[in-house]
Amino acid sequence: MNFISTRGAAPKASFADVLLAGLAPDGGLYLPESWPRFTADEVAAFKGLAWNEAAFRVLSRFTEGSFSEAELREAIAAAYGDFDAPDVCPLTPLADGQYVLELFHGPTLAFKDVALQILGQLFARALTRRGGRATIVAATSGDTGSAAIAALGGLPNIDVFVMHPKGRVSDVQRLQMTTSPHANVHNIALEGSFDDAQSIVKALFADSGFAGKISLTAVNSINFARIAAQSVYYFTATAALGMPATFIVPTGNFGDIFAGEAAMRMGLAVQKLVIATNANDILVRALKDGVYASGPSHATLSPSMDIQVASNFERALFEASGRDADWTAAAMADFARDRKLVLPHAVLEQLRGRYSAFAYDDDATLATIAAVKAETGRILDPHTAIAASAGRVIGPELARAGTGAAVILSTAHPAKFPDAVTRATGAPPPVPARLAGLKDLPERMDVLPADADAIKRFISSRLLS
């Protein structure tokens, strides 16, 4: 399996190369040179499979040539052994044509664990084989940071630097990062937005001298290994339903929903992929108006989606353009310069054929949390609630038409956002054992300006100490 860059100017790479590099050297994002395909019978055979076997069947299509079958199976077993749900990502009924795909049963109670736990296992194996050290820099809007720390904290030959926007993640999200006891973990509270943090990560990669000196890599959703791992639950959910579904995905950086497109390109029948987002509605506007234009980032009750520039949208644009790397490279250069990109009609129509989009404000988020709790007893976190807001419209329509079901991706445990849940329902959510005592632990973090040079100096000082 070879991988290519969306911008066309990077050499072909193996899965292990992609895993360790994160971002392609031409600034693009890696994708398979050609998508592996499952036949209809192979897709049907996912029904009843244990999670580990399902993960192996998907991931082995990408890892061939980089990891042996035994290595991959061992890594999968280690990655998912600490999940609270035996089937890792259970599908549960909600109401009236709606189901909830629970992705929050991992170590940090967020969907990022599904990808980062296996990424960490494979990363450690690849690094051991090649020798040397690696420096991981991650920008997080809340959950990627803690999931990366849980997966990579304490591993040898790895240093992990995590940037979160100061004051714009929940207290629980912050504590899950800053209370890590591992010496190889360095937390940065950035005086800026998530988009600032993401821009700094890209700037660090763009400085090839610095990136090479510290063996820089990324575990954000720009790393294709995460996309591959997240595509697994689209297969398992569809198999459990026994029919194609409309997947409604809380969307910020576009990685989780692009994993649905990846599954479709591998042969999975999906009715529609629905973007559900908050006041940071760049993707809604792009599909509606045909103009991908960033604006100021708005702080909301769903902070993991407080993103104006969705990095993985580049992958969708590349595919929608017919894999035109020259156009994609030029389009991304235009967007970087103007913060605006007018989508060609053909590209826009391809996107609209696969995706639709809805945006909901904080009031709607709170109303949905309250309504779902009153009607079903289920407590939703504010990100899942945004998807459920769309699901409460789409699900009944599908049920009346007899054309399938709406699957709401539940991306975080409600206990990670107790303030929002309390505002909506009048009471905080129960605290799971994994979060008990978190407030009593000492925190370690450094507050830094949103400046790439300042981040470089900080990283260099920590690696030399």
Q: In terms of per-residue confidence, which ranges show pLDDT below 50 for 5 or more consecutive residues?
A: none
Q: Any idea what the shape is?
A: globular
Q: Please estimate the helix content.
A: 40-55%
The CATH topology assignment of the domain at 91-106 and 224-425 is Rossmann fold
Strand order of the largest sheet: 3-4-14-9-10-13
State Rg: 20 Å
Q: List the total number of helices.
A: 19
Largest sheet: 6 strands, mixed
Beta-sheet strand percentage?
A: 15-25%
Describe what is shown at a glance.
The protein is of the alpha/beta class and 465 residues long. It has 19 helices and 15 strands. The two termini are 39 Å apart.
What does this structure look like?
It is a single chain. The chain has 465 residues and is an alpha/beta fold. The chain has a domain at 91-106 and 224-425: Rossmann fold (3-Layer(aba) Sandwich), CATH 3.40.50. It is built from 19 helices and 15 strands. The strands form 4 sheets. A 6-stranded mixed β-sheet has the order 3-4-14-9-10-13, with helices on both faces. A 5-stranded parallel β-sheet has the order 8-5-6-7-15, with helices on both faces. Helix 11 links the parallel strand 9 and strand 10. The radius of gyration is 20 Å and the shape is globular. The model has no long low-confidence stretch (mean pLDDT 95).
